[in-house]
Design goal:
It contains 10 helices and 8 strands. The chain has 298 residues and is of the alpha/beta class. It has 3 domains: 93 residues, P-loop containing nucleotide triphosphate hydrolases (Rossmann fold, 3-Layer(aba) Sandwich); 45 residues, no CATH class; 125 residues, no CATH class. The relative contact order is 0.08.
Length: 298
């Protein structure tokens, strides 16, 4: 959809900014500045790479070309324009094709949003929300989404085999929950496995870690409820994290980044990570050069 809109904008002669995961970080900042400062650039075309860490109060309209399955992601998109220091009303337009899967998933999204409003904001009557569960309910929801009527009277031996239920990655579920609730305060999420095979997640928070610690532990428990092994959790503020990085660069600490996997990085924190990777690249390049020189001397 984004490519189609871009082609149409070119045909209409409309200027636009392009912000996707394939655009380099420096280029993204240039695109953001162009949208904010250039009067001939009225469009900001973005994937969900632009759902976090952006302040786009210059926008007065948010058009969702494709609805996400997670209503929290929809709120993140809208929050880029409707946030602090916004002085104008913001119009939200959700494009939904009639008789499509997106059209049939609107009811499920509304139910998820109603549940989230009740649990997080205390709005509505949680007791009145119907939460069907089990195999039959799953098949009914699947048939509703696909627009397929339930087949009745089919012998058991001829019953179609139900589609397997996709189990959500607990790390992704934990990340989505943290991002939805902490917004710009969540700077980074990393996972690491020690020699004994125990996994640990490190969450880097901007500011105090007291309140985020309780929320993070609850989200970790919920996200890994179906997992046999739940990872440990460490919460660290930005200052401490950057201090450890400097000590590692100075040689006081030994860190092997190849065992560390980062599965979330805020744009507000990406410059720090980029600088760290650049230092590692230069150190590796220097080591290779010295090794090559010694080989030539033999």
């Amino acid at each position: 959809m984004l490519f189609l809109v871009r082609d149409l904008a070119k045909e209409m002669g409309l200027g636009f900014a392009w912000h996707t995961g394939s655009v380099p970080q420096q280029k993204r900042r240039e695109q953001i500045r162009m949208f904010k400062d250039d009067p001939d650039c009225p469009l900001f075309l973005s994937t969900d790479s632009g759902s976090l860490g952006l302040n786009l109060q210059e926008a007065s309209t948010v058009i969702n070309l494709d609805l996400p399955w997670n209503p929290a992601k929809l709120e993140q998109r809208i929050a880029r324009a409707w946030r602090k220091y916004q002085t104008r009303s913001v119009s939200i337009i959700n494009l939904v094709c009639e008789n499509s899967i997106e059209h049939r998933m609107l009811g499920m999204l509304a139910q998820k949003q109603e549940l989230a409003d009740g649990v997080l904001d205390g709005r509505g009557d949680l007791g009145a929300i119907k939460m069907p569960s089990g195999r039959v309910a799953f098949l009914e929801r699947l048939q509703g989404l696909m627009g397929i009527e339930a087949r009745k009277g089919v012998p058991a031996e001829r019953e179609p085999i139900p589609l397997p239920v996709t189990i959500e990655n607990p790390y992704e579920a934990f990340r989505d929950g943290m991002v939805a609730r902490m917004a710009d305060r969540l700077l980074s999420l990393e996972s690491c496995q020690n020699a004994a095979g125990q996994n640990t997640i490190l969450a880097v928070i901007d500011g105090s870690t007291e309140k985020p610690r309780h929320l993070s532990e609850r989200l970790l428990q919920d996200s890994f409820s179906a997992s046999k092994e739940r990872p440990l959790l460490e919460i660290m503020d930005r200052t401490t994290y950057e201090t450890i990085q400097r000590l590692a660069d100075a040689g006081f600490l030994k860190m092997d980044r190849k065992f560390i996997q980062q599965f979330h990085c805020s744009p507000a924190f990406s410059d720090t990570v980029t600088e760290e990777k650049e230092k590692q690249r230069k150190q590796a390049q220097k080591a290779f050069s010295e090794a090559d020189r010694k080989m030539r001397m033999k």
